[in-house]
From TrEMBL:
Keywords: Glycosidase, Hydrolase. GO terms for molecular function: hydrolase activity, acting on glycosyl bonds. Gene3D superfamilies: 2.70.98.10, alpha-1,2-mannosidase (1.20.1050.60), alpha-1,2-mannosidases domains (1.20.1610.10), GH92 mannosidase domain (3.30.2080.10). PANTHER family: PEPTIDE N-GLYCANASE PNGASE -RELATED, SECRETED PROTEIN. This is GH92 family glycosyl hydrolase. Residues 16-242 form the Glycosyl hydrolase family 92 N-terminal domain. Pfam families: Glyco_hydro_92, Glyco_hydro_92N. InterPro entries: 6-hairpin_glycosidase_sf, GH-type_carb-bd, GH92_a_mannosidase_put, GH92_N, Glyco_hydro_92, PNGase.
Length: 754
């Protein structure tokens, strides 16, 4: 079966990473080559809508752009495939090459497969280029097919140019992601290490030998390059990409190309080794370590560099801009990443996180509005609520916006208090007019979508909760910046979660445009919640859990409901079985359930609710059961990874430090799964430069915190702040086999935002 690539070097963290995790059962990851946050993700496509499916056995091509863990087809631009013989088919589905996982291997920054055609293909990457090496049998008809007209999304227009005997240039315009969205253009240039003997192009069903250019709309279009491999059987090529123009692709090629495949491979491995080396985990089984480091690896795959080496990038106004003083990033799955991955990156990659936050602010400057779900140079409007607010307030609270606080606040205030113009692409807080007037976003069934993407009106109940959460986080920022009136107003709006609480059912419930509760009264059958039910959204009030607890009848009632939600009695008896048979029903089975769904974002914070109800040991029970869903097999992801969201949940929960109030500086605590984790931190943001988390003897049985110490002093709270982390070198837990009273005292729970 496919495996992580082995190496003569021993003890490398990259040897623990298995890029095939999540490539089966809709984890939607990819096994190909990338460097941390790289623009290029060079990976095989088997026909699955997101690129690669482990259950498939034919490769259609190796394409340059992929997004880890999304739920809809996206990317897959410029699939390239080596073949032998005459070029007759123009459809990559027909010339797809069979392969076996026995002849396939991958590691961070490297992928190799032996095709049944007798050709070996190897891939590696730099930040803005994909490098390929093909080893052919001896033949005078060794081909490399460059397919511009087919991808994982809808291709609208393509152009192919053979510039000389080594170089091919393309421009690919496409759109689509769950629904049709505004088009973007990707420019590529591919340079081979030796001249090809002959070449040609194709358009539609016609192959034209000797042709140098081909241009097409929504039809097949590409070029083939032929080599004589009678003596030299290898062909290497470097493909550079740009979202700006052909000049940008050429500049990227000049800056990052020109090296042999082996040198690029070594550099990519070194980049990953350096990145993973900031987290050193000790203890745990080999399977646990492989799973952990594979999740850490996936957490660093996105967002992605969007600017060329000269700093130019295409803004959301479709104009060319130049990033000054920061690297411009793109690809924003904010509804997912604001809960886990943004915080992990702020801890382990604060310099890049700063540039990511500045990029989001820049989107507002360029286009007039903040993003919701951005791909490349366009807004897709996928998902709902207001995820950009906790994303940016997190950056602010982690100290990443020094000198840019006012720019961020102005953009966030505009977003929180208004709706984008009708002639702009973003939907923003689409239901904000009603929310500001009535305190809730109405659920309007079958309402026509005004703009492509998802609509908050289709998910009014969950949108209300997300708006209120964002108001709370923005209120904290306003308070700290001295905007007292704004802070008061946002704090009051943060209580709007109460407006959709139905006291007759004891659960949140959607309300229609007239203000009436609507949809089934049964919270497991509820409507108006995005990818979930009222049961699963009931704890999405991290700004005021004590207020939510009061609404449902107090602490005892809340704990009983939490126990039912997590099937706690069954969980304690058999954690892994409960996780797999009681909680999980399928990667896209979001509805008609009254149990925890660890495969999807609305429930990611829920296990930590026990920190606020006086039973913190139950947080550890639930978290450790959920961690059993992550394995080192292709099926080892809990649903879509969503640009590292689920992977970051695994990493943070395994370390025992988790962002329980996304958009603030609050980190909840639970029992680590490793006996020791050493984190190397950036001294510009964390002056101590290091944090060690210890839990000697931690195991499946001895998982309960008996006591905690922070730099040797007794510590009884169930949370830390970022300021605490900045001055802390050692956090240690004493663990045992039975729950204790640790974390149950007055003031131990994470604070309510005021």
């Amino acid at each position: 079966m496919a495996q992580a690539a082995s190496s003569p070097a021993q003890g490398r963290l990259t040897d623990l990473v298995n890029p095939f995790i999540g490539t089966e059962n809709e984890g939607n990851t990819y096994p190909g080559a990338a460097v941390p946050f790289g623009m290029v993700q060079f990976s095989p496509d088997t026909g699955h809508n997101t690129g690669y499916d482990y259950s498939e056995n034919h490769i259609r091509g190796f394409s340059t752009v992929h997004i880890s863990g999304v739920g809809c087809g996206l990317g897959g631009d410029l699939p390239v495939l080596p073949t032998t013989g005459d070029v007759t088919s123009t459809d990559y589905g027909k010339y797809a090459a069979e392969f076996s996982h026995d002849d396939e291997t991958a590691s961070p920054g490297y992928y190799k497969v032996g095709l049944k055609t007798g050709i070996d293909a190897e891939l590696s990457a730099t930040k803005r280029t994909g490098v390929q090496r093909y080893t052919f049998p001896a033949t005078d008809k060794a081909n490399v097919l460059i397919n511009a007209g087919q991808s994982l999304h809808k291709t609208l227009h393509t152009k192919v140019e053979i510039l000389d005997s080594r170089t091919v240039r393309t421009a690919i315009t496409g759109s689509g992601f769950c629904q049709d969205t505004k088009a973007y253009t990707l420019y590529t240039v591919t340079k081979f290490d030796r001249p090809f003997t002959t070449s040609g192009t194709w358009k539609g069903d016609t192959v034209t030998a000797g042709s140098k250019t081909s241009e097409a709309d929504a039809e097949r279009n590409g070029a083939y390059l032929r080599f004589d491999t009678g003596k030299d059987r290898t062909v290497e090529a470097t493909t550079a990409i740009s979202y700006v123009d052909a000049k940008g692709a050429a500049l990227n090629l000049r800056a990052e190309g020109g090296r042999s495949f082996d040198k690029v491979h070594r550099a990519a491995t070194a980049a990953w080794e350096d990145r993973l080396g900031d987290v050193r985990a000790q203890g745990g089984s080999s399977t646990l370590r492989r799973t952990f480091y594979s999740s850490l690896y996936r957490s660093f795959l996105a967002p992605n560099v969007g600017s060329d080496v000269d700093g130019r990038y295409t803004g959301w106004d479709q104009k060319t801009h130049r990033a000054k003083g920061f690297t411009y990033y793109q690809n924003w799955s904010l509804w997912d990443t604001y809960r886990t991955q943004a915080q992990l990156l702020s801890l382990l990659a604060p310099s890049e996180s700063r540039d990511m936050a500045l990029s989001v602010i820049q989107i507002d400057k360029d286009s007039g509005w903040l993003p919701k779900w951005g791909y490349g140079t366009v807004e897709t409007n996928i998902m709902t609520g207001d995820p950009v607010t906790p994303f940016l307030t997190n950056a602010y609270q982690q100290g990443l916006l020094k000198g840019h606080e006012e720019d961020a606040y102005r953009a966030l205030k505009k977003n929180a208090d208004g709706v984008p113009p009708a002639d702009s692409a973003p939907v923003g807080r689409e239901a904000n007019k009603e929310y500001l007037a009535d305190g809730f976003a109405p659920y309007i069934k079958d309402r026509a979508h005004v703009k492509p993407g998802d609509s908050d009106y289709d998910h009014g109940a969950s949108a209300t909760l997300e708006y209120a959460l964002s108001d709370a986080m923005l209120g904290q920022m306003a308070k700290e910046l001295g905007y007292k009136a704004d802070a008061k107003r946002y704090a009051e709006r943060a209580q709007n979660y109460r407006k959709i609480f139905d006291s007759s059912t004891g659960f949140f419930r959607a309300r229609d445009a007239a203000g009436n509760f609507t949809g089934p009264a049964d919270p497991a059958q509820s409507e108006g919640f995005h990818e979930g039910t009222s049961w699963q959204y009931q704890w999405l009030v991290p700004q005021d859990l004590s207020g939510m607890v009061e609404l449902i009848g107090g602490t005892d009632a809340a704990n009983k409901r939490l126990d039912s939600f997590f099937a706690y009695d069954q969980l304690v008896a058999d954690p892994a079985k409960t996780a797999r048979e009681v909680w999980v029903n399928g990667p896209y089975d979001y509805y008609n359930a009254d149990k925890y769904n660890p495969q999807n974002e609305p429930d990611l914070i829920a296990p930590y609710t026990y920190l606020s109800t006086g039973q913190p040991w139950k947080t550890t029970d639930v978290v450790h059961a959920a961690l059993t869903l992550f394995t080192d097999a292709p099926t080892g992801m809990t649903g879509n990874d969503d640009l590292g969201t689920m992977s970051a949940w695994n990493v943070l929960s395994s370390i025992g430090i988790f962002p329980v109030q996304p958009g603030t500086d609050t980190w909840g605590l639970s029992t680590p799964v490793f006996e020791r984790v050493d984190l190397t931190l950036d001294r510009r943001y964390y002056p101590e430069g290091k944090l060690t988390v210890k839990a000697p003897g931690t195991s499946d049985t001895d998982r309960y915190i008996q006591s905690a110490r922070a730099d040797g002093a007794a510590y009884g709270k169930t949370y830390l702040t970022t300021e605490d982390l900045r001055g802390l070198r050692n956090l240690s837990f004493t663990v045992g086999g039975e729950p204790s009273q640790w974390g149950t005292g007055a003031g131990a729970a994470p604070p309510v935002l005021k």
